[in-house]
């Protein structure tokens, strides 16, 4: 996990651990996982709809939300 300058906590994991249709960040862009090997760009808007292959061990970030017990 890492904390950014605004105080948000980000969970760092691998592409293979992300669920299909889950949103994640990679290289400053927001993505949605389409399949076990591909993801589509959500933001920035100018690239929205473009999809790319991801390696299973590429690192991604998701916003951390602590479990409320």
Task: Characterize the structure shown.
With 69 residues, the protein is mostly beta strands. It has one domain: Roll (SH3 type barrels). 0% of the residues lie in helices and 45% in strands. The strands form two sheets. A four-stranded antiparallel sheet has the order 3-4-5-6, with no helix packed on it. A hairpin with a 7-residue loop joins strand 5 and strand 6 (51-53). It is globular.
Strand order of the largest sheet: 3-4-5-6
The CATH architecture assignment turns out to be Roll
Radius of gyration: 12 Å
Instruction: Give a short account of the largest sheet.
Output: 4 strands, antiparallel
Q: Give the rounded overall mean pLDDT.
A: 89
Helix content: under 10%
| % residues in beta strands | 35-45%
User: How many DSSP helices?
Assistant: 0
Q: Structural class given helices, strands, pairing?
A: mainly beta
Q: Supply the number of structural domains.
A: 1
CATH names the topology as SH3 type barrels
Poorly predicted sequence stretches spanning 5 or more consecutive residues: none
CATH C-level: Mainly Beta
């Amino acid at each position: 996990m890492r904390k950014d300058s605004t105080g948000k906590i980000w969970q760092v994991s691998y592409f293979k651990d992300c669920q299909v249709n889950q949103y994640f960040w990679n290289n400053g862009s927001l993505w949605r996982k389409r399949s076990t090997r591909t993801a589509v760009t959500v933001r920035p808007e100018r690239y929205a709809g473009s999809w790319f292959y991801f390696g299973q061990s590429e690192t991604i970030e998701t916003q951390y939300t602590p479990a409320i017990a």
